[in-house]
Amino acid sequence: MSKIVHYTDFALLPGEQKERERLNGWRLYNQHAGVSFRKHPKEENKCVLYNNSNSGADLRPGIIMYKVISGYAPGTKVKFLMVASYASNNNPPRLSVRYGTKIVVPERQLTADFVEYGGEFVVEDEGVILAIENAVAESAGNDFYMSQLNISVNEKGING
Question: Residue 110 needs a FRET pair 20 to 30 A away by CA distance; which of 4, 65, 89, 135 works?
């Protein structure tokens, strides 16, 4: 049976003081200027991470955000799920996810609908990163929304 061990919906939880705490342990990479948190465009009472290329610091190809995977026994099977859509179809982003050098979610062009993208990986060592990447080389127009990030594992794989 899988258990959700890390869930991020970009809401500002009670007691949190800073906007960046909405990232819930995920780290931005080379994207700080373009990121904001907004009300979900299609679902009231939800929030999204919005990555905007018109903020003066264009989106760049490569890693946009990552999480260090730790606390799981080597060999643990981990499931990853993200929900995302494009915010502009001028130059739709193409996102992929990898764990170390292994592809977890193959490159997918985002659509106007919020779609679930997911995959699995097996924990190798402590401290390997799970990275979300954008493959679009052109910097303008590849804005996107992300509404959820979910990591779950088999309950036997949780250390502690």
Answer: 4
Number of domains comprising the chain: 1
Give me the CATH number covering residue 129: 2.60.120.260
What is the full per-residue pLDDT of the chain (160 aa) written as tens digits? 578 788 898 887 777 677 778 888 899 887 656 788 899 999 988 999 988 766 555 556 688 899 999 888 899 999 999 999 998 777 788 899 999 999 999 999 999 999 999 999 999 998 899 999 988 766 666 789 999 999 998 765 444 4
Report the alpha-carbon distance of residue 5 to residue 21 in Å, rounded: 17
